[in-house]
Records
---
Amino acid sequence: MAKVKQLCGRSEVKKSDCWDLSSLFESDDAWEAAFTKWEKQIGGYARFQGTLAADVKNLAACLKFDEDLDRHGERLGTYAFLKTAEDSANSTYQRMQGRFINAVSRAGQEASFIRPEILAIPQAKIKTYLADRRIAPYRLLLERLLRYRSHTLSRKEEKLLAMQTEMAQTAGHSFHQLNDADLRFGTIRNERGEAVELSHATFSTMLHCPKRSVRKTAFYQYYQQFAAHENTLAAMLGGSIQRDIYYARARNHASSLSAALLPDQVPESVYANLIASVRRHLPALHRYYDVRRRKMRLKDIHMYDTYVPILSGLQTRRAWDEAVRLVLAALEPLGGDYLATLEKGLGGGWCDRYENRGKQSGAFSAGSYDGWPYILMNYQPDVLDHVFTLAHEAGHSMHSHYSAARQPYTYYNYVIFVAEVASTLNEELLAKHLMAQAKSDEERAFLINRQIDACRGTIFRQTMFAEFEKTAHEMAEQNEPLTVEAF
Ligand SMILES: [Zn+2]
């Protein structure tokens, strides 16, 4: 019998393959001490309550207090979040994360007077406030806040909304626990006949397997687990949608869509136009599927046939160090400072490289203003896409790095609508670099195929998600029940 390749536990992972979270806190004890100190400051909001309209000096002091508390909180929260992502079944970090979220919720309640109090300041007075030198660091913040005038409730109502922060996360939290900790997909034989534990990350490898029976078995074995929990999943998704609608209605938004688009000031017509354009170009996607079917010599094409490269002969195994070198070479057009910073970061603890049991699936970039911009990967050396993922997340992290270096804390975060520019550009640079280095038509065809699949994922699939979300929210807004069948 072939040996079962099982995922190792977090404690067995080599330290050099893990991120180094000491830019945030040296240890759990250091976190604990900082958290205790921070938590005590939450009560400090009280001294500003009822004073903001009286003097611009009070408002400036209050905003500074809020900024400092938020900035320390971000650092504490990032540590707890990243520790939980390492192993979502680790109860120590679940508790850490839980205590942090609870404290943030209390801070939100304590601070809930700020918005309504500012919004109640008469227009003429706010004008003189905005012109005051002492308020200069917060002028843009105030201008943004004033946009919410018609969506802000009374102090008491705002406090009630702030008290719901934790409850409101139940749907999302349950999904992560189910998806990352409780679901088990069993083992599966790969094309070499080895038994491999099926997981979110190995599933992606299996879909890239040239042998159709492996892809097909992996597909059904993986989705069987989701099908077995379809009512639970529908209930959680329904709960998340109901939450969006509740907040949109509570705050007088026309719809959950208009509430979602307000912060980034994206017009609804842009959202609708994206969906309409992608729909209009669906025939191109269907034509590509047919080319794929013919090239793969299949009678019919299934979902599990659409990830494997059409040209199967190309070996694309790259060890971690090789992947890093390749990404750095591809990003050369971004300049020496960019490359030096990224090289140092990737070599020096920004990135958590490989999968382990309980680790959050997929990949992300996350950090805090006062710490490094960390990257979570589930890197598999035989999946070229994971090199692109590394380039992508490196784009986010470098964006965060430059933003934190150049902007004050209040303004360093960027909105999702622009966030993917930095990451997608990096993917394009990597594709261009690989294309220039390609030595044969076969290799070039392989890369073109990869680029088409990337378009499918980034443009078609994401837009389909957006359309699904839009339709599901609209259904709920028209009081249609959100059952499995409805979804
Ligand atoms: Zn991204």
---
Amino acid sequence: MDEPYRSFNSFLRKKFGGKVRKIPVNAGFACPNKEDRAVGGGCIFCDSYGSGPIKSYDLSIPEQIENFLAGRRGEKYIAYYQAHSNTYAPVSELRRKYELVFNYKEIVGLFIGTRPDAIAEEAYPLLEQLNKRIYLSVELGLQTIHPAGLRYLHRNHTYEQFLDTFHKLKERGIDVVVHLIIGIPGETKEQMLETVKEMNRIKPAGIKFHLLHVLKGTLLLEAYKKKEFKLLEKEEYIELIIFLLEHLDPGIVIHRLTGERDREIFYAPAWALNKVEAINAIRSKMKERSTFQGRLC
Ligand code: SF4
């Protein structure tokens, strides 16, 4: 392998024969975890945009797509329904919103971000049909397999619920990308490794690694200001990611190596704002050490 890990960009280049860009979309869905205030007010790290795009947040889906495409020619795109839980609505609404991507011939893929407990039984046939018409990927937020970590983050779902949804998607041939957070307060390196080993067992199509970071307007910011936990330093994060990649099945595509959020709502750690520098440091250290994804798997 030329690259020390199986990157999403090279995966896309191989699949589509060129560069493919993602269009971040707020499709106007809600999140069940935010609606039920009795269980913690949503995930502790979640901002009011539900991890979606902030600048185009109030625009319609076509406006968001067309603004992104304006002035660009000859490229391919993936529409990424990113904000909140993009399967959390009646099937008729899901169908109407998903169908919009077929109005754009440049769009070759649809990525749907959601929670493990937010896909109704009736939605699976729709996802299965979509998967036959476009490159579909469902992104499931998991963050960790450990109950204490899930509790700390106010995820309000279990690992078993995740597994149930994961298998329902996988048995329909739908690619699943799993989101994991590194640096959850109280979680040890061994526990992070256990999560990675579990990924090796279930084999998702891809993984997004996120550094635990603090955004404005979140419950996590309140805990951070009270000094209830410490964030990872850049070097610590780099070493942890290399360690986890070395143990990760080389067939799993790495969609992301660290978190990414707009400066306007970002609080800490400051080093995480320079995502490119962190990724370059991970790559060059892995090359220097002649190590690679799966070396210790
Ligand atoms: S499930 Fe997603 S949208 Fe909902 S509260 Fe958690 S991070 Fe936010």
